[in-house]
Amino acid sequence: MPETGESDTGFFCFETAALRRLLDRLRAEGCVGTATREFNLLPVIPLAAQREVVLTPRVMRLQETVGVNTREDAAAVEAFLGASHGR
Alpha-carbon distance 50 to 44, whole Å? Predict the structure, then answer.
């Protein structure tokens, strides 16, 4: 894999009852991993859009998509947020 390139960014918030309904439906449709029995969360999104209110935020700057996996990442995000809010 290249050191840099595209990355996926996701931030999901669900009402617990709504997510349970959606996962129950996916389970009934057999949408779980064969080996792991895990759910892939992405099929929940279009299903939710059919049945629930779905809000999507707009990403305005690349810095808003940074993952935080290290202390250095956290420091970079802290600096970005501080500058964005005049601190």
Answer: 10
Which residue, 45, 14, 50, is CA-closest to 31? 45
pLDDT (tens digit, 9 = 90+) per residue, 31-68? 777 788 787 777 888 888 888 788 877 777 877 777 78
Domain ranges for the chain, please list them. 10-56, 60-87
* Contact between residue 67 and residue 6 where contact means Cβ atoms under 8 Å apart: no
Q: Cα(10)–Cα(43) distance, rounded to whole angstroms?
A: 14
Q: Do 77 and 64 form a contact (C-beta atoms < 8 A)?
A: no
Give the contacts of 16 (CB within 8 A, at least 6 positions apart). none
